[in-house]
């Protein structure tokens, strides 16, 4: 196993997540895309730690930060979805374009 | 040898199920495809000798996706996938952007001379992480704790149906709370 394989996997996951986050209309599906992108960060950070600086724990700490990011992202995302759905019956991004410039 | 095979199985499985998330008709299936993608990706993390973080990702993602399925069924049309559906906008543009990002990242991955390390790997990676979080990286742990606390407060505020501003007015100076039904707190 070499570092490039892991980074390529991370790049593929990141691109798939980016496609989902850009193309999906439903807020919950957009959050799935964001989670895939955060997952790519986890794979890339662990591989970089393993191959580039295994004696320092910094890479593992980055993975912990990415994990917390995923949890926070999902909790806040669902809270915002609940709030906007309760107020305006909206669950699609196209119906919530108030801030569009 | 076996590590190589396991890596490629996990890598291909992770990307294929990741793509399936945005291809299947049913929201519930999409959620479980995402769960499979996370478990495969955690498999590659386990191959890197990171037992604790790999297991943590698997356990956390199982919980998270089961919660997500509930929200999916709450907010989505067509939760069971009984009819084909598309819920996308600007698909060609998104595909082009995602493809360009992947091409740029892949070019970087193969062109950059990545550093290699001859340093010895720690015997117990979990102990190394724990000692870092409770020692030199304590600030990270504290900031993460604060973020999680702020998240808890923010989610409750956002998801609550009626708060004190609804009951006592914008200046919180109403003598009696304005409630739609009789009874309740302070009445």
TrEMBL record, chain A:
Reactions catalysed according to its record: a quinone + NADH + 5 H(+)(in) = a quinol + NAD(+) + 4 H(+)(out)
Enzyme kind, highest EC tier: translocase
Keyword Translocase: yes
Chief localization: membrane
Domain of life: Bacteria
Quaternary structure and interacting proteins, as annotated: NDH-1 is composed of 14 different subunits. Subunits NuoA, H, J, K, L, M, N constitute the membrane sector of the complex.
UniProt family annotation: Belongs to the complex I subunit 4L family.
Protein name in UniProt: NADH-quinone oxidoreductase subunit K
Primary gene name: nuoK
